[in-house]
Amino acid sequence: MLFALSRPVALAGLALAFVLALVIRVLAIRVVQRRQVPAGWGTPRRSGGKLVDVRRDVDIFGVVAAVVGGTGWGKKVEDSGMHPAPVRVLLAGPIAVIVAAQLAFLAFVLVAGRVPLGQLDSSSVLRGDLIGGTSAELFLLSLAVGLLCFGLLDLVPLPPLDGWGLLRHAVKRPGTGFQKARHWLEDQNVGIAILLAGMLLPLFRGLPLFLFLLDIFTLPFLLLWG
């Protein structure tokens, strides 16, 4: 978001997108946990009646990534030690945020009409590097892209993202190599270090790795609405 300081409207859209994404993800996780948690697996997360509990639901490193890179992530879903959260719990958050992004894109199309979004890079939106358009259009576009990028980033198979839990489910019989990787990525916080480096350090075309990948994976959605 720091790159968008010169465009207050875009900055407001990105900031709201991050906050909304955190709230939507947490609510989706709670709904699925309370309705479908299997016997023997943990308990639904509680927040003492708060919509979002900062200590339980907000990851400070995710906030740092959002401030500098334009999007970030929330706190890891609680698991039962050796076993990750159920697949439906892990999918609930990113899917709900991606669906919310589509509603924001719909609002953008209703305001701006059919705009060739396929010619736009999501990384440019995350950095506030937008040209033309009314304030309402810039705000809605930043909101939609911010939500979409949060949801897609959450599917990356690195801790503490939900995609890491999905990868653990996919590996039915983890060997010694996977267990060592898990130790370093989770227990030694190497996963967070990789995420931060991938969000902050320029690598491809002057872009950090994950912003470059987000440009690729957001393209189908931009083409759909453009």
From TrEMBL:
<keyword id="KW-0812">Transmembrane</keyword>
<feature type="transmembrane region" description="Helical">
    <location>
        <begin position="192"/>
        <end position="225"/>
    </location>
</feature>
<feature type="transmembrane region" description="Helical">
    <location>
        <begin position="89"/>
        <end position="117"/>
    </location>
</feature>
<feature type="transmembrane region" description="Helical">
    <location>
        <begin position="138"/>
        <end position="158"/>
    </location>
</feature>
<protein>
    <recommendedName>
        <fullName>Peptidase family M50</fullName>
    </recommendedName>
</protein>
<keyword id="KW-1133">Transmembrane helix</keyword>
<keyword id="KW-0472">Membrane</keyword>
